[in-house]
Please model this.
Amino acid sequence: MPENKDNEERKNEFIDAAEKLFKENGIVETTISSIVKEMDVAKGLFYYYFKSKDDVIEAISNKYNEAFNAMMQESMNKEDYTERLKQFVNNSVKSFHVLHEKLNGEDGADLSNLSVRSTLEAKNKAITDLTKLFDEGVQLGELTLDNTKYYANILISGIVELIDQGEASNDEIAFIIWDLIERAGKD
Model:
């Protein structure tokens, strides 16, 4: 088994090196050659772990989204529906903020390929989870929403947009989202 761990560690070293170079130079400007040079290994070793640079981008995106999903599930064990919904809103804002920070390159380095992929996956997961929470709220009589998926999509997209704009604090965004839920979800 140690060999698998070594392989996984080596693969993670490639991912970390590529991530560092992407943030410094942008994705387009970072080549496979620059990644192996950063690691001081032969180019063939890169191809042992990855088929292409796009595979590395996907691996980084997966790493970010695993961390995002873990943050989204944090403290979601409250029994009271309203408290769980509030926690979900807070977790969403915090998680998207952290993801946004990870997806910013230095000095305007272009990470758009990674950013679009990671953000879209995170949004889809958050929309699915919020839709389920809204459906539960409707069943419990806590909310009166006709199309829970539309509400979830609008609210999660709003969170992402407000974080991208960078003008509102996490607390302000969470307050706005919660206010919208309360206004839309009650008779």
Remarks:
- DSSP finds eight helices and no strands in the chain.
- The two ends are 59 Å apart (CA to CA).
